[in-house]
Amino acid sequence: MKIEIQQLEKHYGSKQALKPFNLTIGNEKIIGLLGRNGAGKTTLLQMMAGHIKPSGGQVLINGEKPFNNRNVLQHICMISEANNFKRKLKIREVLKTVSRFYPNWSQETAERLLKTFNLSPSQSAKGLSKGMESALSITIGLASHTTITIFDEPYIGMDASARYTFYDILLEEYEIHPRTFIISTHLIDEVSNLFEEIVLLKDGNLLTHEPADVLLAKSLQVSGPAVQVDRFTEGKQVLHAAEIMGQKSVMIFGDDLDPARAKAMGLSTERCSIQELMVYLTEKEEKMYV
Ligand SMILES: Nc1ncnc2c1ncn2[C@@H]1O[C@H](COP(=O)(O)OP(=O)(O)OP(=O)(O)O)[C@@H](O)[C@H]1O
Asked: Which domains are seen in the chain, by residue range?
C-alpha cells in the first residue's frame, strides 16, 4: 500500500506541530522515522494511522483517506507506548478482541510471540509490568499482519534482551510476510541496521527522506592533523568538529565525499552512524538539507 502525504499539516491551537510537506512511502519497506523530542513524529504517525485528522493537506493510503475509513484502517496497525488494554481482560481475550479488527490476523504468530515473551494467555492484563504490556503490544502489532504496521516507541519498559528479541522477530516477520513497517524510536543505534529508508523530521518540517545507505554515504568522519583535516574539509558542510592538541576530527555531510582522497592525505575516515546524523542534522541552527 502506497502512503502519499500531500501538503500535510497539523495545528494544535496556535501550535503548528507539522508544517506542510510531501512524502511518499512505497510498498514493503522498513522505515525509520526519526527526529528530536517534539519534532512531530507521533503527530505524523497518528495521521497516517487515521487516528487524528489533518488541519490541512492529506494522507492517502492507496488513494484513500484513512480517517474514519474502515476499509483502509483494517490494513494499518499502530502500536504506541500509550496502548492501554482493557485491564479486566485476560491476554487471550485482549488478542481475541483486536484480532476481529484485522482480516489477516495470525493467531499462530500471536501464540508464538506470547511464548517468546513469556506471557501466558490466561494472565490478566491487569497484572502486567510495563515491559510485559509493551511485549503484548508488540505481539499485537506483529500478529496483525497489516500491510502497514507502525511502531511508535513501542518498547517502554522492555529490557535490552526483550528489545533485541523484538528486532529479530520483526526482521523474521518481514522476510516471511513482507509489509511496510514504520518505526519511530530514540534507541537509534540499536535498530538502525534494520532501516531501509530514513525519514527525518525537524521542528515539524521534513528534513530528509532517503534510503539509509544513501544517507550514510553522504557522511564522513575525517580525523588527523588539524592542518590536513582543514585542507580536506574546506568548502564542505561541517556537522561537527572537535580538536585536541593539534589533532582534529570533523564530521562532514554532502554529496561527492571522497574517502580515498582523505586517506591519500594521511587522514583516517569512517562513516557516521544514523544516530550521529540524526543528532547533528537536527541541531537547532537553521539548516535545511532536503
Ligand atoms: N494533543 C496535543 N495538543 C497540543 N499540542 C500537542 C499535542 N500533541 C502534540 N503536540 C505538540 O506538537 C509537537 C509535536 O509533538 P509530537 O508528539 O508529534 O512529537 P514527537 O516527535 O513524537 O516527540 P517525542 O519524540 O517527544 O515523542 C510538540 O510540540 C507537542 O507539544
From this structure: 3-214 (3.40.50.300), 218-281 (3.30.70)
